[in-house]
Amino acid sequence: xxxxxxxxxxxxxxxxxxxxxxxxxxxxxxxxxxxxxxxxxxxxxxxxxxxxxxxxxxxxxxxxxxxxxxxxxxxxxxxxxxxxxxxxxxxxxxxxxxxxxxxxxxxxxxxxxxxxxxxxxxxxxxxxxxxxxxxxxxxxxxxxxxxxxxxxxxxxxxxxxxxxxxxxxxxxxxxxxxxxxxxxxxxxxxxxx
Length: 193
Fold this sequence. Notes:
The chain has helices at about 80-85, 155-165, 175-185; strands at about 5-15, 20, 25-30, 30-45, 50-55, 65, 70-75, 105-115, 120-130, 140, 150-155, 170, 190. It is mainly β. The chain has one domain (about 1-190). The strands form two sheets. Strands 3, 4, 5, 7, 8, 9, 10 and 12 form an eight-stranded mixed sheet that branches. Strands 1, 2, 6, 11 and 13 form a five-stranded mixed sheet that branches. The radius of gyration is 17 Å and the shape is globular.
C-alpha cells in the first residue's frame, strides 16, 4: 500500500545524553558505560483512515517509510489493534513482543547492561506496554510538513537514571511503573525534518 503513495523516510536515532548508541557497543553513560543489546519499538503511521504498523528493530536498521499523507505516528499498540489483531506481520508473537491476550503487546523493549568499574555488569530490561486505562502507554507524535526525510531522536539517559535511582533494573509487565517509565521515555523523544 505505501509503495503506491509518495513516501517519506524516518530515521530513529537512540542516544544516551549526547552520545549516539551503536547497538552492542559500549556507549559512555555518566561515569560508566552501557551496552544496548535489544531495542524494539512499535510505530503506527496514521494517515487518512488507514494505519500501518511497523516493528522497528534497531538491531536490523533504524529507518522506516511512511506515506506523505501520514499525519501522526503512534508509538505502541492500542486496545483496538490488540483486540482485532490477526497476529501476523509486525504483530506476529514470534517477534517476542506479545505478552498475553489480557496484557497485549510490549510497546517498547530495551535491554542491555550497565558496565561499571572493574567491568562489573548490571543487566537492565525495560518491557514497556499496556493498553488499558489508567496505565496505557500509547504516545502520539504529530508529523511536521516539509522534507522527505525526518529524524526522531530518543534519549534513554533519563530512563537509565531512574532505574539506578530506584534500584529497579527490570520492568516486565504493564502497570504503574511501566506507565511512569514509558512517559519518561516518550518525553525524551523529538522529531526534526
